[in-house]
Structure formats: structure tokens, C-alpha cells
Design brief:
By secondary structure, the chain is mostly helical. It has 17 helices and no strands. The two termini are 25 Å apart.
Length: 397
């Protein structure tokens, strides 16, 4: 059934926390064992494990929330209105950020790694000389903006699925699933049909942003829509936050104990079917789903998250996401060359990057016209003011 619920404040709070989680994830990247745009000479295995943990489920959680947001958006929008809104909120800020923020990141990376000694304008010219990239990103050097490329494609690919789920046949399927998730722990079984899909299609999160990762995140995008489409599924997630946490921790620890990090480092370079993959792929799917249920259910339970998100914080979330990584790279470019310990550098990098990113995001979110270019939703006029306007002026709001 199509529920006439108001705005779900916990989703707004969780979305902001997810953006902050991505920020923390990127501040750690200079210090892990993997390749990144700017790297510190000293690396930490502990940071690498933390990165693996956050990377496995954190981004999937982002896409789950986006799928839930798609359900909210389609409550009062037509399919065409939904597409227009996604283009305005995703494609426009992507184009602006790609043009303005990717070239500086390219300049910093090329100079840090010694691959260029050209001027900034020289590297900008090189950057724009060839923008073609491999699918599913389609563009070269999207940096952190790959998330928006995925999300826009997910919205377009998911729309027929969402419309079907809202129709009579889809509602019967949702009702069937809802009936079977009324017992404690049964919501965790939603991961079961994903296991063979991920096994067959080599679907897992990875550093190269290939089709396997695309499928993996798209699945959880659709699951986010599915969960919000039925009160019983929402209640099941809220109820089973603790079992979800147990599943998430158990599957992740089991994976680490059996060598999943070393396996993935080799598998990402040459993905393929193998007996170890048949063991690790289900563990990844189960761990991710367990953590998603735990965090989403915890957000539903937390009293503080039932209050509306402060408007300035809500408006600054997308600009913060867009600007945070270039700021991190700029500060890290200098910090990693300091003659001091790893954690001293991190203690400087994290707060400095946060303060600069937050200040810039707040500024971008408050500038008329500019804020729309950076993905800030246009503020709706209060109901009492709209009611006083002529009817013809209110069309399309």
C-alpha cells in the first residue's frame, strides 16, 4: 500500500552521517596500503583493515539510502518528474563539479607521483584533452564523483523496477515478502537471493569501479526502495538491528580471519571464478546486509534522529560531498611530506580538511543560484505563502 507518511527524519540524519563517513574514509586513504591519489610514505595495516571494513558496507549504505529516497520521491512525482528531479539534483552538480574540481585533483596527483612537472594550466589542458573512460563510468578521472555517475544510472535503470513494484503485480510480491519478515531475524534473509546473483555476476565492491561493483551497489539501491515500500519491512529492520549487527560482525570477522583482504587485493586485479571466491562472495553479501540492517535499524530507533535535520545542515550535505575530497588532497599533498609520524599527520589532516570543507560547503549552499548548481534542493515556499499566490503562479511547484 502507498503510505502517506511525512518526511522520515532518520533518513536525513543517516544520509548526513554517511557523507561524514565518506569524508573520514577519504582522510584515511593516504595512510593505508592501497594505491590512492596522494600517499604517505609510512602506511598502516590497521588503517587498511579499517578501510576494508568501511568500504565493504559504507558505500552500499549510501546507495541503500538513495533507494529509500527514490521511494519517497515517487510518492508524489510522475516518472517524468522523477527523472527531471534526478537530472537537476545529480547530473547538473556532477557536470559542475567534474569541470571545476577534477582538474585540480588531477594536478595534485600527477605532481605528487612525479608524473608531471607542468603548470596547473598545462595539466588542466592535458586533463581535458581526453575525457573518455571505460563503462560504467564512461568518463576518465571522475575521482569521488563516480558515486553520482552510478546514482544517476541507478535512478534511470531502477525506475521501471520501482514502477512495477508500485503496480498490482509488484505489490503482491512486496506483500508476500512483508508477510514472511514478521518474525525476528527474518529480514536478514533478504540477502539470500542476492548471494547467487553476486556469485554469478562476480559482483563485489572494488577499487576499479567495474560492472561487478555496479551490480553489487545497484542491488542494494533496489533493496532500499523495497524496504521503505512496506510498513512490515520497515518494522522488521527496526526490530532486527541487533541480529543484523551480529551477522555483520560475524561475517566480516570470519572473512578477515580466513584471509579475505589478501584475497581481494589479488582478485581485484584479475576477477574470476575460483573456489575461494565461492567462499568470500557470500560472506561479503551477508556482512554488508547485516551492517545495513544494523545501521538503518539503529537510526530508526535513535530518538535524536526523529527530529528534523537542521536546514543549514541538510542544504550543505551535497556541497560538502562535492568539495571534501579536493580539500583533503590539497592538505594531504603538503602534510604527507612532513618529517613526523603518521598519526600526527592524521590529527592535522582530519580537522583541517573538515573545517575547510564545511565552511566552503556552507558558503556554496547559501549563495542564490550557485547552490542549485551544487545540488542543493530549492527551498519550498511555506504553505501559507503559497496559498496566497495566484493559482497560475503555483503550477509546477
Amino acid at each position: 500500500m502507498d503510505r502517506g507518511v511525512g518526511r522520515l527524519s532518520y533518513l536525513d540524519w543517516l544520509r548526513v552521517l554517511a557523507v561524514f563517513g565518506v569524508f573520514v574514509f577519504h582522510t584515511l586513504r593516504p595512510f593505508d596500503d592501497g594505491d590512492w591519489h596522494v600517499k604517505n610514505a609510512e602506511r598502516s595495516e590497521g588503517v587498511s583493515i579499517g578501510i576494508a571494513f568501511l568500504g565493504l558496507w559504507g558505500l552500499a549504505f549510501f546507495f541503500l539510502l538513495s533507494g529509500a529516497g527514490a521511494w519517497l520521491a515517487l510518492r508524489w512525482r510522475t516518472a517524468g518528474g522523477f527523472v527531471r528531479e534526478r537530472l537537476l539534483r545529480l547530473l547538473l552538480p556532477f557536470v559542475i563539479a567534474y569541470v571545476l574540481l577534477s582538474p585540480p585533483q588531477y594536478f595534485l596527483e600527477e605532481h605528487h607521483k612525479g608524473r608531471s612537472d607542468a603548470s596547473f594550466l598545462g595539466d588542466v589542458k592535458t586533463f581535458f584533452s581526453d575525457l573518455g573512460g571505460d563503462a560504467p563510468l564512461w568518463l576518465r578521472d571522475t575521482y569521488h564523483l563516480w558515486f553520482l555517475v552510478y546514482l544517476l544510472q541507478f535512478a534511470l535503470l531502477g525506475l521501471p523496477v520501482f514502477l512495477w513494484l508500485r503496480g498490482p503485480h509488484g505489490r503482491r510480491l512486496v506483500d508476500w515478502i512483508g508477510e514472511r519478515c514478521t518474525r525476528r531475524g527474518t529480514i536478514l534473509l533478504l540477502a539470500v537471493p542476492l548471494v547467487p546473483v553476486h556469485l554469478l555476476l562476480l559482483a563485489a565492491p572494488g577499487p576499479e569501479h567495474g560492472w561487478g561493483e555496479f551490480v553489487f551497489f545497484f542491488d542494494f539501491f533496489v533493496v532500499g526502495f523495497l524496504v521503505l515500500s512496506d510498513d512490515r519491512l520497515i518494522a522488521a529492520v527496526r526490530r532486527d538491528a541487533v541480529p543484523g549487527l551480529i551477522l555483520g560482525i560475524g561475517a566480516f570477522v570470519t572473512g578477515v580471519a580466513t584471509g579475505i583482504i589478501d584475497f581481494l587485493e589479488g582478485w581485484w586485479e584479475d576477477p574470476g571464478y575460483a573456489w575461494p571466491y565461492a567462499w568470500y562472495s557470500p560472506l561479503i553479501t551477508l556482512a554488508v546486509w547485516g551492517w545495513l540492517v544494523a545501521v538503518l535499524g539503529g537510526g530508526m530507533r535513535l530518538a535524536a534522529f526523529q527530529r528534523p535535520l537542521p536546514t543549514p545542515l541538510a542544504r550543505a550535505a551535497m556541497p560538502f560531498f562535492l568539495v571534501h575530497q579536493p580539500i583533503i588532497l590539497l592538505i594531504a599533498y603538503y602534510v604527507v611530506d612532513w618529517n613526523t609520524g603518521l598519526w600526527t599527520k592524521y590529527v592535522v589532516l582530519l580537522p583541517a580538511a573538515f573545517l575547510v570543507s564545511a565552511a566552503l560547503a556552507w558558503l556554496l549552499s547559501t549563495l542564490p543560484g550557485v547552490s542549485t548548481l551544487f545540488g542543493v534542493k530549492r527551498q519550498r515556499m511555506p504553505v501559507e505563502q503559497r496559498a496566497d499566490r495566484p493559482k497560475e503562479d503555483r503550477l509546477g511547484e
